[in-house]
Design brief:
Helix content is about 10%, strand content about 35%. The chain has about 700 residues and is mainly beta. Strands 1, 2, 3, 4, 5, 6, 18, 19, 22, 23, 24 and 33 form a twelve-stranded antiparallel sheet that branches. It starts with a strand and ends in a 21-residue tail after the last strand.
Length: about 700
């Protein structure tokens, strides 16, 4: 069997396409490859040319229009893919998933289309959700156009407050040049289906503006497709609520408003910047380069398009615009162990005293976290030796957008041996020493969803273990400090409250262990107190292994799934994070546990994970999917300034072979070291056995640091 090792259950962890030429014939993994720029353009051109769709360009124009929001690969059905991969069947039809906003009609909605065949599309069909659920127009993700209109509406509405803002902050919205105010928007956008009321946190636009709230939060209603009907419905300033802009402005004019006066931001050493300041007490050097990763004899992995091979591992990968990294056809030793392993959703739930803080429940698939894969810096985000891959996304744009160095692949020394043993002879010597260096191959990308940066890793170990891991870093989502706010976090700077929040990350694990017909069994440690069979009158307390087959999705009597204590107050349809682990029978109409629409309509979303398990199907000898939730509670503190650090803010899980092999498969590695004394017990002459050549010399990357940053 293949053991799914969960963070909480087993405490195992505390805490695209290449630009190179394609192979001929194409690698089978290419059926899972992201769409090329040419394919993205072909889909857009085809759909824009269909008169019945009436599509307009994404940029510019009114909100009440029909526009193409997203184009990405529509993965083939599993049965077709396996027939091709395993039995030499026909290559699956290559199709795109297109998301269309139909805003220029009597009943606006969002519709998803399957477009194909690629590379020359000639037809499309409507893609439905389970149960035939429709996507209302109000559930659509935000677009650049709507943000531009939102900013214009906010600037116009804030004009009466310009004297207040200038006096209190030194910044403003009107003719502000380099002393402008900006905003961060909060979601969900309301309190029920159909609403689009967004709380905006007003901030000074300086480096790290997320840490510079002004004390003003504005509720702007932008549900109507006509921005002329948008209006400010409520404000919160320095702990007090106001029914409108005029009420707040008049309170300031009368001199009855307690102003939250902010100090002038310094030109250098701003607390929210990365500029070095202070000194380490030890005086050890920091102006020189530290330890680096090197490849003495070159790369030990192979990358062909979207096919990655390393030791016994082989897999296909893609970076989907909607939700990020997705692995397919994961094999070890030539045998498939998982059909799919993918990120589904990243959620952050906040608490606070201000309306923006208490309303914040971020669901990052709704912010297209897969398309937030900005450039990785060589030597910082990934080692200098890494292979970097570009990505192309067509999201809220009128053509493919090139994201340079969006992914990286590298072999990582773990700093601890994979296994080792010193065999003591207890006479001052040893019988032998043997060890195998610890290394793993890392596939990495990042998602910068406004303030937070998520670092997504899949690690492949030579002993058949796969690790999924995410680090959280970037700026905390912070609000203006008031004494009442201390109940919900920490005062991390003079006017800044770091709000308490929970991070939850959801993964899909479609395991295929020795075929697609699998069953699920849990193992618990129990204890027994028994008579000692070899000593009359004595007793032995010892552990034993309790195995329990899980026969149905809901478990049954005494078999309920272990729920996540970090996620007790979720909106009822958003149930995927409630479970550490849930196992369901696989269905093509249940491809994902969340969607890009859940953020703006969490009350009645088109995808509800609870429906996956509510039918309580049998899960014995079936094609099964494990849905895994990992997460952590974050109570911000002063050391989160300027950014949350990665140590202590990482979570993940392992897939581990469990009686799947006859022995540790890493014995196939030629990297061990074995030392045996030739003259025991003196041990003055040693036999040292190695199967790798000596290092050729210094391991440094010859090129200086470079960075582009455009996309």
């Amino acid at each position: 069997m293949w053991l799914l090792g969960l963070l909480w259950a087993l405490a195992l962890l505390v805490t695209v396409a290449s630009s190179g030429p394609s192979a001929d014939p194409p690698d089978p993994a290419s059926i899972f490859a992201d769409l090329s720029p040419e394919e993205l353009r072909a889909v857009r051109t085809f759909l824009m040319g269909r008169p019945e769709l009436g599509l307009s360009p994404s940029q510019g124009g009114p909100l009440a229009k029909n526009s193409l929001f997203l184009v990405e690969l529509l993965p083939p059905k599993k049965r077709s893919a396996l027939r091709f991969l395993e039995h030499g069947g026909a290559r699956p039809r290559r199709e795109a998933r297109a998301v269309v906003f139909f805003g220029a009609q009597a009943e606006p909605n969002v519709t998803e289309l399957a477009v194909g065949p690629l590379p020359r599309p000639s037809s499309y069909r409507v893609l439905g959700f389970k149960g035939g659920r429709a996507v209302p127009f109000s559930a659509r993700p935000m677009t650049r156009l709507e943000y531009e209109l939102l900013h214009e509406a906010l600037v116009a509405a804030m004009a009466p407050l310009e004297p207040l803002l200038r006096e209190a902050t030194g910044f403003g919205f009107q003719n502000c040049s380099k002393r402008c105010l900006t905003f961060s928007d909060i979601a969900p956008r309301g309190l029920g289906p159909g609403e689009r009321r967004t709380w905006l946190v007003i901030q000074r636009f300086v480096e790290g503006y997320f840490l510079h709230p002004t004390g003003l939060e504005v509720l702007l209603d932008h549900r109507d497709p006509d921005p002329r009907r948008w209006a400010v419905r409520q404000l919160w300033y320095n702990g007090r609520y106001f029914g409108g802009v005029r009420e707040l402005a008049e309170s300031h004019a009368r001199g009855t408003l307690p102003l939250a006066r902010l100090p002038e931001p310094p030109t250098r050493h701003l607390f929210s910047s990365y500029e070095p300041r202070g000194r380490f007490a030890s005086g050890t050097p920091t102006k020189v380069h530290g330890a680096k990763v090197c490849e003495p004899q070159g790369r030990r992995y192979r990358l062909r398009g979207n096919r990655l091979e390393y030791g016994g591992w082989s897999l296909a990968f893609r970076l989907r615009s909607s939700a990020g990294l997705q692995l397919f056809d994961v094999r070890f030793g030539g045998e498939r162990v998982a059909y799919e392993l993918s990120v589904q959703e990243a959620i952050a739930f906040y608490g606070g005293h201000s309306p923006a803080a208490m309303q914040t429940k971020y669901m990052d698939a709704g912010w297209a976290m897969g398309a937030s894969s900005y450039e990785l810096a060589r030597g910082v985000d990934c080692p200098e030796t890494a292979t970097f891959l570009d990505a192309h996304h067509l999201l809220d744009a009128d053509g493919p957008v090139h994201f340079r160095h969006a992914l990286c692949v590298f072999e990582l020394p773990m700093g601890v041996p994979l296994r080792r043993h010193f065999d003591n002879d207890f006479q001052g010597g040893f019988h032998f020493y043997a060890g195998l260096e610890g290394r793993a191959l890392v596939l990495r990308t990042t998602s910068t969803v406004y303030n937070y940066d998520y670092i997504w890793d899949f690690l492949l170990y030579p002993n058949g273990v796969l690790e999924a891991k995410v680090h959280a870093t970037g700026y905390i989502h912070a609000t203006f400090y008031t004494p009442e706010g201390r109940r919900y976090g920490s005062r991390v700077h003079s006017h800044l409250l770091g709000n308490i929040h929970t991070h939850l990350v959801h993964y899909k694990v479609d395991l295929d262990v020795a075929g697609s017909g699998n069953s699920f069994e849990t193992m618990d440690i129990r204890f027994e107190n028994i008579s000692n069979p070899w000593s009359t009158g004595a007793r032995v307390v010892q552990p034993w292994l309790h195995r329990e087959p899980r026969r149905r999705e809901l478990g049954g009597p005494g078999q309920g799934w272990d729920r996540d204590p970090l996620a007790p107050g979720l909106t009822p349809p958003l149930t995927c994070p409630r479970y550490h682990l849930a196992v369901t029978r696989r269905h093509e109409n249940e491809p994902s546990s969340s969607s890009i629409y859940t953020q703006n309509d969490p009350w009645d979303p088109p995808v509800t994970f609870e429906s996956f398990i509510r039918d309580n199907e049998t899960i014995e000898d079936q094609d099964l999917v494990a849905w895994v939730t990992v997460g952590f509670l974050h109570v911000p503190h002063a050391e989160d300034i300027p950014n949350t650090a990665t140590p202590g803010n990482a979570v993940g899980f392992f897939l581990r072979p469990f009686n799947f092999f006859n022995e540790d498969p890493s014995v196939a590695s030629r990297a061990p070291v074995i030392v045996r004394p030739l003259d025991p017990p003196t041990c003055s002459r040693l036999e040292i056995r190695r199967w790798t050549p000596p290092s050729p010399g210094a391991c440094v990357h010859p090129e200086p640091f470079t960075y582009n940053g455009t996309y």
